[in-house]
Structure formats: C-alpha cells, structure tokens
C-alpha cells in the first residue's frame, strides 16, 4: 500500500478495501498530530483531536474533491477541528445548558421562581434601566436579547424566527452580552 498515491488509496477504500484507509491514516498520522499539537499545545488533547480528525475524514471522504491534494484537505480539517476545540475550551456558552429540545434548564429554573412584592417593584425599576441600556445596542443584538430573555425563546426558536443560522444567533447573543457588560462598566 505504501507505493500507492493518496488518490489511489481513496479509490481502493471506496471499492471496499479497508486496508487502504488504514494506509492513509498511517501515512498522514504524523502530519495531523503535529498540526494538533501546534494548535492545542497539549499531548493528550492533540491525541484526542487526531482521532477526531480522522473520524471526520472517514465520514466526509466522499465529499473530497479528488482534483485537490489530499494532504491539503486533511490539513484544513485538522486546523478547523483544533480551532473548534479551542473555542469550546475557552468559554462555556450559556447554550451548553440546553437539552436536546433546546430548552435551557438554568433559564427555566430562574423563570420558575416567583417574585415577592418588593422584588417585583425593584424589578420594575430595573426593567426601565435595562431597557435604556438595551436601546444602546444595535437592532440585530436587541432582537436576540429581547427574544431570549423577555420572550423566553431558546436559541433554536430565535434562529427559526429570524431565519438566521443557529451559530449566528448564538454569536449575536454572546456579542450583545459583551457589549452590555461594557455599557454597565461605564
């Protein structure tokens, strides 16, 4: 198998030769591991990422354009996978607390708590103050914040309502929160 090109190994794999894909892995294992180690700076994470990358390659090999160089395509997958892992490690998004239905159990718990009269009065004054700060946000951020916190919609529902991809809605939510924190500091 060592004498075959990447392209020939891919063709053999599609014809049912399991050893062909194993040969591809063996040939490019070092490259993928080096890329993973470069981005993740941790051997254990790099090993996990390398495994994840080859699973992605196996799942998406049919979409590989054989006019391209396999190692370039593989390197792109490796880099993007590592960047995704770094993003996940950086911050635990609020959406991580969503269940499969898109309901956020933290928000549901907060909503279920009833307010006492004094709390209600304080919340009323706070709502006016929060409203004035929200007005400082651009309309695209205002929509996401209002739909999420005031209308009680989850990110999937907001995505459907706005006709925007789910990751765009989550990004706008995160950016809006960052902007609001900046306004509060001032």
The rounded Rg comes to 24 Å
Q: Give start-end ranges of low-pLDDT stretches.
A: none
CATH topology assignment of the largest domain: Arc Repressor Mutant, subunit A
Question: What is the total domain count?
Answer: 2
Number of strands: 0
Order of helices and strands: HHHHHHHHH
Shape: elongated
> Could you give me the name of the CATH homologous superfamily of the largest domain?
Winged helix-like DNA-binding domain superfamily/Winged helix DNA-binding domain
Backbone structural class: mainly alpha
Round the mean pLDDT to the nearest integer and report it. Answer: 82
Q: What is the CATH C-level name of the largest domain?
A: Mainly Alpha
Structure write-up:
The protein is an all-alpha fold and 186 residues long. It has helices spanning 6-14, 18-40, 43-60, 70-90, 105-112, 117-134, 139-150, 155-162, 166-185. α1 (6-14) crosses α2, α2 (18-40) crosses α3 and α8 packs across α9 (166-185). The termini are far apart.
In brief:
It is built from 9 helices and no strands.
Secondary structure: elements and pairs:
Blueprint: H1 6-14, H2 18-40, H3 43-60, H4 70-90, H5 105-112, H6 117-134, H7 139-150, H8 155-162, H9 166-185
């Amino acid at each position: 198998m060592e004498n075959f090109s990447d392209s020939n190994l891919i063709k053999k794999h599609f014809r049912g030769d399991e050893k062909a894909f194993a040969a591809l892995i063996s040939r490019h294992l070092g490259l993928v591991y080096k890329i993973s180690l470069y981005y993740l700076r941790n051997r254990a994470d790099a090993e996990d990422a390398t495994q994840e990358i080859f699973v992605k390659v196996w799942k998406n090999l049919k979409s590989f354009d054989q006019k391209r160089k396999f190692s370039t395509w593989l390197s792109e997958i490796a880099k993007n996978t590592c960047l995704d892992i770094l993003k996940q490690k950086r911050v635990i998004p609020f959406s991580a607390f969503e269940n499969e239905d898109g309901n956020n159990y933290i928000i549901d718990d907060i909503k279920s708590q009833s307010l006492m009269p004094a709390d209600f009065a304080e919340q009323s004054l706070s709502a006016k103050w929060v409203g004035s700060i929200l007005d400082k946000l651009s309309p695209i951020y205002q929509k996401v914040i209002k739909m999420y916190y005031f209308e009680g919609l989850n990110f999937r529902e907001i995505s459907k309502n706005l006709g925007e991809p789910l990751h765009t809605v989550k990004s706008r939510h995160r950016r809006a929160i960052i902007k609001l924190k900046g306004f509060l500091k001032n």
